[in-house]
């Protein structure tokens, strides 16, 4: 008589294997959402350095290649690298201010920027095993505050997109608002009346309809796509051999520290969303991948890399928590880096289309933070003060970017990042209120790791 077989242990959402069509469509959503941010950094730095349109296009393809490789490694894991969760990687905005300054410095230029990026990536590889230990200082009180701040700091991006983007000749014109509204309403209706597969691709459906309406309004610009080469391979050191200069290196090393602080908060947020415990070992793997991507980026003509917060909102929005989705999205990015025409087509998505989707997804990030705060003793007045001050400081550079303009330039990676400001404030105030003086509280014990 045969023994009854034991029931199969269900896979965690992080390990879920989706049907091929659903896998591809959700992966495309991730690519479409992060593409604007991925190309923005090389656009800004390339223009500041006075590069030609062809050279800037090469920078963009280089960024897509490294972002794709780093995304695959973060999602699947290779050796000691990769957090093995649904993470999308791309060029970090934390370094933009420093790199724009470097681009205008005599004798620095692109080789100096790439040399500083390589050195900063190597520095990150050295310190990642030590930085990962800070996870014990991110109890639900701190994590919830940081995640709420991430969502709130992204809202101005979504609103700017919905109004037509920074380049709009008439910001807030009715056609921009109509497109953003169509995308947002479509997402809401799909989530209200449909189920399963359709909910998972609701963002893609909304953006597709928005793209069609934008095309009808004549807002989709495909001029120049014919001149783009059919295929182009990114080659190392395209702008010459990297140059290593002390001041740019020190500035970029500071940027890497800020990236680590931001990434730690976002990895913990993603852990809450996907139901994965982000212990020091897992966090170390994620940070090592961040640093390794930046180290590679300097050789491949691009910049420091980090995880993208907006894609965390998409994970929460769709409910698809599989790391294989972002791995496929990473392969898409690698493919786009080889196909300039395809990359050009994705880049033609008007900002208003992204804005309608961003309002829903970035709001979901903030809602996740509020949910996590319910696990903390939020009735305590001091904890309320921690949340209030940290979110307030996090919003300062968002509401008025020039608020810290008179502070030293080396502080810009911190003072220009709302996420970094909120994270540093929340960690510091938690130490002051709940740890120092022997007053160990439940807020820390819940996250204490052995």
TrEMBL record:
A GO term for molecular function: xanthine transmembrane transporter activity
The keyword Transmembrane appears for this protein: yes
Signal peptide region: none
Compartment(s): Cell membrane
Membrane topology listed for this record: Multi-pass membrane protein
GO cellular component, one term: plasma membrane
UniProt cross-references to Pfam families, sorted A to Z: Xan_ur_permease
InterPro entries assigned: NCS2 (IPR006043), UacT-like (IPR017588), Xan_ur_permease (IPR006042)
Family designation: Belongs to the nucleobase:cation symporter-2 (NCS2) (TC 2.A.40) family.
PANTHER family: PURINE PERMEASE C1399.01C-RELATED, URIC ACID TRANSPORTER UACT
Listed name of the protein: Nucleobase:cation symporter-2, NCS2 family
